[in-house]
Amino acid sequence: MSTSNGNSQPSDSPKPNGPFWSGGAAERNALAELLYLMGSDARGADALPAVPILMRIVREGNTLFAEGAQAEAIYFIRAGTFKTFRTAEDGYEQVLGFAGRTELVGFESLSTGHYASAAVALEDSSVYALLLRDLLSVGQRNAGLDRTVLQAVSRAMVRRGELAGVMSAVAAEVKLARFFVHLSDFMRVAGQSALTFHLRMSRRDIASYLGVAHETISRAIAALVNLQLVSVHARDVQIRDMRGLQALCGGTRQPVHDSNARHA
Amino acid sequence: MSTSNGNSQPSDSPKPNGPFWSGGAAERNALAELLYLMGSDARGADALPAVPILMRIVREGNTLFAEGAQAEAIYFIRAGTFKTFRTAEDGYEQVLGFAGRTELVGFESLSTGHYASAAVALEDSSVYALLLRDLLSVGQRNAGLDRTVLQAVSRAMVRRGELAGVMSAVAAEVKLARFFVHLSDFMRVAGQSALTFHLRMSRRDIASYLGVAHETISRAIAALVNLQLVSVHARDVQIRDMRGLQALCGGTRQPVHDSNARHA
DNA sequence: CGCGCGATTGAAGCGACTCAACGGCAGTGG
DNA sequence: CCACTGCCGTTGAGTCGCTTCAATCGCGCG
């Protein structure tokens, strides 16, 4: 979703044909790769209708799509990390989420034809693009792809729900603890170390995502470090007490400032 | 989404055949009705494969599905209002959203097989159920239904993003103002009065949805009334100054300096 | 009628926001 | 090569607003 252990191997031949898009003869392979990436069994992947899948490389800091732009495609992330956010009239950036390998971005555009949020790469990344006109075409559907899309969207919905979960916590340390636990879970299912990972986003982005001021993130990190729950150096995070961290996540309302002394 | 003007006519013959499900000969009609309800053009609705659509009545206060339960179906709301929420270990209810006519609930279950949140009817309601096994079946797909599902899910994603939008506001009055504006928008697109509507949810539910204490909701309502922006009696809301209300929505947080997005 | 629940209002404390300053780091251009 | 300039991250101090605890009122319901 948001981190990587310095692995993100650019090994598997991204090399695009054009400035933006690759395609042509490679499309058939791209579709099979996409289904494999997203965890679908590739049964019948050879007997597929001609659903073109394009690949696109996005360098760190570049935008995959802009908020409000005419929607052309939805994107499956092949490698790298993105943040999605909306920009208010006053310029405030509300981060809606971080998306990594195997995740889907840009899907909200399907109902309106315009992207409801922007997506920017937090590191050099690559995505598979599925054009909307192919997704909505009546004929020549690919059942495997359809199922893959539905499942990916379902997961995206779950992650949006988690956003509400982290923002609902009152105390900033609790929000941050939940954020770290979610990150750890993501690393684990990605087959990487669940206790050591690298933040790909700035403190500001985290703050926006959690709904607090960015200074509060600094202080919350310091608090978790003081509690011996984690070690943080720059953007490298090491979880030292997962149990304690999860215990901290429990509190929703009511401050966690434990206070053994109830008022007498 | 969440309100109705006391119209919700139970006229169009809900009458279920069994205790829970209706079906049988009416299924063919139900599919056509569903497509019409969701705004799809019903072209070729007669030449549909046999996709069974079941209808279900849910009385006020009853649960459509429970959090964590094995998922059987996703639901298109035909009439009424639901709230979706997750319950923390300490019993705190985090409201994830309110869903009304033409909206979709339960979709998150698709990726895990279990419902990630619970759905409870806030008034007597009826839904169309689309069984997961039909949704995921490889053969005999209905292109119109597929497209309808995708669009409904897209809209649900947009609404989840709006949740982040309301929770990101700092001041409680701003959150509430945004909530009212969203409600008004929903009423308008539903073809009802955009300035007068009835809240179907409790103050507590609103508070949970907006991420504040329920007492704060009372005070925020009083503040908006004092500002002559709205009138509120019990759960009946009348918007008196839509411009002022929208102006209040503007405030988010201090603007974040441009930063990212180097060259598009 | 009494009980419970929803809603409102008051009082007090504290936690997060805001403003501000500082150090470190990377990119840039003289 | 090194100042210069942003940006990121941290830390401090003060104010404000929300949370929490508490009491009260109205209403529906058994």
Give a structural overview.
The structure is a homodimer of 264-residue chains. The first copy, chain A, has 264 residues and is α+β, with helices and mostly antiparallel strands. The first copy, chain A, contains 8 helices and 12 strands. Chain A folds into 2 domains: 21-165, Jelly Rolls; 170-249, Arc Repressor Mutant, subunit A. The longest helix of chain A is centred in the middle third of the chain and has 26 residues, at 143-168. In chain A, a hairpin with a 2-residue loop joins strand 11 (230-233) and strand 12. Chain A is 35% helix and 22% strand. A 5-stranded antiparallel β-sheet of chain A has the order 1-2-9-4-7. A 4-stranded antiparallel β-sheet of chain A has the order 3-8-5-6. The first copy, chain A, has a 3-stranded antiparallel β-sheet with strand order 10-12-11. In chain A, 45% of the residues are buried. Chain A binds a DNA duplex (30 and 30 nucleotides) through residues 170-172, 202-204, 212-219, 221-222, 234, 253-255, 257, 263.
